[in-house]
């Protein structure tokens, strides 16, 4: 093919060629991510839907059982209900407290004092610390007789409980560690929100004679409702899927008092080899999270304020 | 930050009408009270970590003394020597996986983010929706079929499941990179085109260097996720020599249950790299949390 022919061809097809060239360029840039999502997310999703309808150990051929797994979950597995209840306990205990404490810390860190970054860093440090190291430390803090926590309580004359091996104290103990570790995140989100509130608003309110409490109720909190809304959704989703904390501190015990949903799912899939059953559980948690998120989304009109 | 600074100046200028029932100027007393409250809280947050580091430097007999002590009288480094004797493989496995994850995600997410943010091509919005749609499904739903897939192709008990799927599905990072590229000025891109750069050249040499803060934020998130991951290695790895630091530590706990000071030295080693990186780059990290958090 001569240069002349090539040139003529290029000239004739130029607009089309460049459009295709542009498309292909774009596709090449996104190809690694799009192909990755197809192979590692969409395909597994289809497998998972099928698996949830089978009796399958992941190795031998799957046996199709229809909706039996779901039926068993609701009617033939009392532990499933227990783990749901434990998860609800953990979530209801963790989410509001984390957001409230995070708000308090954000207010403190928003004060115009020197060295505030040091305090912010301190409150946030547990968030970046890995759960196994945290588990180690709290395991010894919670020991009944020679534990650090009961040692401190002992100095104050209080006889502390056996925390992790006590039926009634195990969940409060886990919730406390979870709040302690995770509260830095709501703090950072709310701090950013606080710093986005126009100074003039508070100034004007002060001139009008609004008390500190009044300004908090009528300016600060309403203007932070988008952040509170965002946190109520994200914190719910992550609390509902708590795993590491349970794995390193209690392994679900004592008895099944701290067996949460994802821990039970993990046991079913990787300890008991019930892949089909665990897949059904995974889908159920997805539906549950989606439902709660949808409800929160619908309710936001009632209380979230977009300025 | 800037808002806080402005607020300080207006407050000190004292522009309020006199005689109002309002918050007084930040006097030294209220400041002192604030410092005390914040310091007590800081100690409460740091105490477990201080105890961890303190115990790692104590002889075993002093660790669980009643009443508890927090700092060692005579620091004893022998625990570290022993931990380093036990853990080198685990430490390096964690380093290897974190490196692969961070570098891989930075490459794939910046390529895709650049295309979604700056290029015009057929199906762009559709594909972007495809990327975002996967974010609503909890990770646990993918995990079991992924496990089955990897066991079929012989990847269970290798390091591949711990980086390949992550590097090629950087949903959150792609979203952040797209935001970063969108905000760059068009002139920058045009200048590159006039100079005759290819699209890839514009991405690599002109646009990518402008997104350093976002790259830093993504790098930190990814490092943290990879370094602290317990679930992935727990499920996919069986051979002890392949194991990462968190799982190996969880195993230690059952093995060296009675040697608390040794466990705390291991825990300190696993926490220190993260704390150092966090202290060095916390500005980017916080920026990443706030921008992504509020727009996600």
Quickly give the structural class of chain A. mainly alpha
Biggest sheet: strand arrangement of chain A: 1-2
Number of helices of chain B: 15
Give the fraction of residues assigned to helices of chain A: over 70%
Which word captures the global form of chain B? globular
Shape of chain A: globular
Strand content bin of chain A: under 5%
Task: Give me the strand/helix succession of chain B.
Answer: HHHHHHHHHHHHHHH
List how many beta strands of chain B DSSP finds. 0
> Averaging pLDDT over every residue of chain A, what do you get?
90
Descriptive terms for the model:
heterodimer, A: 307 residues, mainly alpha, two-stranded antiparallel ribbon, globular, B: 296 residues, 15 helices, 72% helix
Outline the fold blueprint.
The complex is a heterodimer of chains A (307) and B (296).
Chain A: H1 3-51, E1 54-55, E2 63-64, H2 68-76, H3 78-109, H4 116-128, H5 131-141, H6 148-155, H7 170-182, H8 184-195, H9 199-207, H10 212-240, H11 244-249, H12 261-271, H13 275-303
Antiparallel strand pairs in A: 1-2
Chain B: H1 2-13, H2 28-56, H3 60-63, H4 78-86, H5 88-118, H6 124-133, H7 139-152, H8 164-167, H9 171-182, H10 186-194, H11 199-207, H12 212-228, H13 231-236, H14 245-255, H15 260-295
Task: Report on this structure.
- The complex is a heterodimer of chains A (307) and B (296).
- Chain A is 75% helix and 1% strand.
- Chain A contains 13 helices and two strands; from the N terminus they run αββαααααααααααα.
- In chain A, α1 (3-51) packs across α13 (275-303) and α10 (212-240) runs antiparallel to α13.
- The longest helix of chain A has 49 residues, at 3-51.
- Mean pLDDT of chain A is 90; it is low at 6-13.
- Chain B has 296 residues and is an all-alpha fold.
- Helix content of chain B is 72%, strand content 0%.
- Chain B has 15 helices and no strands.
- The radius of gyration of chain B is 25 Å and the shape is globular.
- The chains are: A mainly alpha (307), B mainly alpha (296).
- At the A-B interface, α1, α4, α5, α6 and α8 of A face α1, α2, α5, α6 and α7 of B.
